[in-house]
Design goal:
Radius of gyration: 26 Å
Largest sheet: 12 strands, mixed
CATH class of the largest domain: Mainly Beta
CATH architecture of the largest domain: 3 Solenoid
Structural class: alpha/beta
CATH topology of the largest domain: UDP N-Acetylglucosamine Acyltransferase, domain 1
Helix content: 10-25%
Strand content: 25-35%
């Protein structure tokens, strides 16, 4: 795609310093840029690299100046970077229609603008909204609903009775609505507790590849609108995740835990069942959460605790070999051995 710098700046609500009529044909990081490319810099160090590169123009903050490059100056360079990438690399378009190899139940209601690709299966009484995409190999179980513009990437699976909002993206290998891990010990065996709930996913959620979100045992497992879930995440039965949360890779949330809005869970965080995590909570990587966390706090560690306390413990542990050595020296002096 070819765009002028002026056209791009208009889309980014940016100000041009330099040749606004120059054309751009691509986007690249500064160390790989060539003439005709747009790049971006959000710090002074990155700006110096971008200015020395072969790129034709730079997205940067409003204070930057240059006599070597044309600049698109914006309030938030990283936000503008995301918007610019979408201009140069738009989402692929899928033509409306149903592939001959797809198996569609007679009772399913599918908007005529939807694309259903090869080898998809759509169950009884499923409702699929406008401009949805089932790319290929997708299964959508009975009585499920997909809101407008939802996109299932190849081999994503949606079990029965799942309720999925608008503009949801579910990546390959993800499973929505599988049975929760519920058993009761009876006469020497683990008896399965039927999982008869469902999964409810709000608008504008994105779910990474090979993530599993279990249906509720009774009631619903709920993912709030705008929440983004990375690859390889496990969300257990009856978990409730608030709006606009971020769950990084390999997070595991046990049954019936509740997260507030705008929480951030770093990679490999584990949350025990039935806990309540407040709004705007941040939990550091590899933390094991065993207690409720109030609004606005930052926790980390195993077991997790408030970050300042956890850091003091870490520092103390680093000093432990030195302290043990000193104790041994004192014992030697006191005992004379």
């Amino acid at each position: 795609m070819t765009l002028t710098i002026s056209e791009i700046a208009q889309q980014l609500a940016g100000e041009v310093q330099g040749d606004a009529n120059a054309t751009l044909t691509g986007f690249a990081m500064a160390n790989n840029a060539k003439p005709g490319d747009l790049t971006f810099a959000e710090t002074a160090d990155f700006f110096a690299v971008a200015e020395a590169s072969a790129a034709t123009a730079i997205i940067c903050d409003q204070k930057a100046t240059s006599d070597k490059k044309t600049l698109i100056r914006v309030a938030h360079p990283r936000v503008a970077f995301a918007k610019a990438l979408a201009l140069f690399f738009p989402e692929p378009k899928f033509a409306p229609g149903i592939h001959p190899s797809a198996v569609i139940a007679a009772s399913a209601q599918i908007d005529p603008t939807t694309h259903i690709g090869p080898h998809c299966t759509v169950g009884e009484r499923v409702k699929i909204g406008a401009n949805c995409v089932l790319q290929s190999g997708n299964f959508v179980g009975d009585d499920s609903t997909l809101g407008d513009e939802t996109n299932l990437f190849p081999n994503a699976t949606v079990y029965s009775h799942s309720q999925i909002g608008k503009r949801v993206r579910i990546h390959s290998g993800a499973v929505i609505g599988s049975d929760g891990f519920g058993y009761v010990f009876d006469a020497g065996v683990h008896r399965k507790i039927p999982q008869i709930g469902n999964v409810v996913i709000g608008d504008d959620v994105e779910i990474g590849s090979n993530t599993s979100i279990d249906r509720g045992a009774l009631g619903s497992t709920v993912i709030g609108r705008g929440t983004k879930i990375d690859n390889l995440v496990q969300v257990a039965h009856n978990v409730e995740i608030g709006d606009h949360c971020i769950l990084c890779s390999q997070v595991g949330i046990a049954g019936s835990a509740k997260l507030g809005k705008y929480c951030v869970l770093a990679g490999q965080v584990g949350i025990a069942g039935h806990l309540k995590i407040g709004n705007q909570v941040t939990i550091g990587s590899k933390s094991g959460v065993m207690h409720n966390i109030p609004d606005g706090q930052q926790w980390l560690g195993i077991p997790a605790q408030p970050d300042k306390q956890a850091k003091r413990v870490m520092i103390a542990l680093q000093r432990l070999p030195e302290l043990l050595k000193k104790i041994a020296e004192w014992e030697k002096k006191l005992t004379g051995n």
